[in-house]
Design goal:
alpha/beta, Rossmann fold, Alpha-Beta Plaits, 2 domains, eleven-stranded mixed β-sheet, disordered C terminus
């Protein structure tokens, strides 16, 4: 997979390093000569250019990219790069970094963004995830379909503990994608049983999040009650 990353700062270089380790082809683009540090990510391609300029993106052969990541520290630049990547070059997947949470509402399909990653929101979500059991935590927002990646740790008293995945009537527009159980990552099948303490990851429509949280957090009835 070929990936172009606009912004060769610490964030861009870190992403490039991870992708290269996973066998992908990576191009780093930055207009600041001081940001071009080939020795830091020697396996990547480097381009000294303004990623907001069509001529620069032509030189980068953006039409050959499977993914473009707008990872600069400037939200305006990330929006322009995303829009050009999607509309001018038809890049299938565009991921954009959100630096200021106040601008998050702009990072949607209208600007060519498929996935918006807000560092402050993600850090906040990870803190919540670490301390919350039974509360739904939003980890990532997808622009298409108004869907989010959400997580909930199944509490001990949940009525669904011990229930098979296939027997649960999940809310409409929600999909259980992963069960994290201790050190194991499980791809859920209909026969898998939910256990207290499981971290459940869903892709869910925002309008269904409250319903999903209510379902997973519902307490068992005490024995002997109807």
């Amino acid at each position: 997979m070929r990936v172009a990353i606009a912004g060769a700062g610490a964030v861009g270089r870190s992403i490039a390093g991870e992708l290269l380790e996973n066998g992908h082809e990576v191009l780093l683009i930055d207009k600041a000569p001081t940001a071009i540090s080939v020795e830091r990510v020697p396996m990547a391609e480097w381009l000294l250019a303004d990623a907001c300029e069509i001529t620069s993106l032509d030189e980068a052969a953006l039409q050959r990219c499977n993914v473009v990541i707008a990872a600069t520290g400037d939200d305006k630049v990330n929006l322009v790069v995303s829009l050009l990547a999607k509309t001018e070059y038809g890049v299938p997947r565009v991921v954009a970094r959100v630096n200021n949470p106040k601008n998050e509402w702009l990072f949607n399909e209208s600007w060519g963004v498929d996935v918006a990653v807000s560092t402050p929101r993600l850090m906040s979500a990870l803190v919540e995830e670490a301390v919350s059991v039974g509360d739904l935590v939003r980890l990532l927002r997808f622009s298409h379909g108004d869907a989010n990646l959400v997580e909930l740790t199944l509490p001990e008293e949940s009525a669904l503990a011990g229930t098979q995945v296939g027997d649960v009537q999940w809310p409409e527009d929600t999909s259980l994608v992963t069960i994290i159980r201790g050190t194991r990552v499980l791809t859920p099948s209909r026969e898998d049983s939910l256990e207290a303490g499981d971290e459940l990851l869903f892709v869910a429509a925002q309008a269904r999040e409250e319903q999903l949280e209510d379902l997973l957090s519902a307490r068992r009835r005490p024995e002997g009650t109807v």
